[in-house]
Amino acid sequence: MHKLKAITPLGSDTPRIDTIGALTISEGVDSALASVAARAGQEAAVRDLLAETLGLSLPDVGRSADAAPLAAFWSAPEQWMITAPHDTHELLAFELKTVLGDAASVVEQTDGWCRFDVIGDTLEDLFERLSNAPIRTMGPSSVRRTTVEHVGVFLWRLSESHVAVFGPRSSAASLHHGLISVAKSIA
What we know:
The protein is of the alpha+beta class and 187 residues long. 24% of the residues lie in helices and 39% in strands. It has 4 helices and 11 strands; from the N terminus they run βββαβββαββαβββα. Strand 10 and strand 11 (162-168) form a beta hairpin. Helix 3 (123-130) crosses helix 4.
């Protein structure tokens, strides 16, 4: 029998939390993630099915939507990332595929991405140094696809003092290093 053990994207048993100056940078490991891509001519059907069945209104370009416990952010034309608590939605992709049927392609993304939550009063100073996203004009519920440390990421502004960074799991160490280095430089 295999004795598999889950590890965080940074390779530990527990999520990493760093507090530097006014910022706290936390490794997020408690969310399930799935991508939804509407098939040709099915965007309206996808929007209707998710709204009617799950109460989730899919957001427009550069935006996110919250219908607790689910949330979604726009990722590309007719494509969204859907997230939910892992403890209650471990099979999120299956749940979404059951609702959407042939109207959309749904792909499990949980272990393909890493998430870092950056919380604090100086997060705008941090992200101005790390990316070209217009962080000071991004209000809550805004999402931008950009680069951090030469890695493609999504920046999701959850509140004035909270940004979630989603990037490829294989680049978790590089993203973490960039976040920590710049946080130290502005502390």
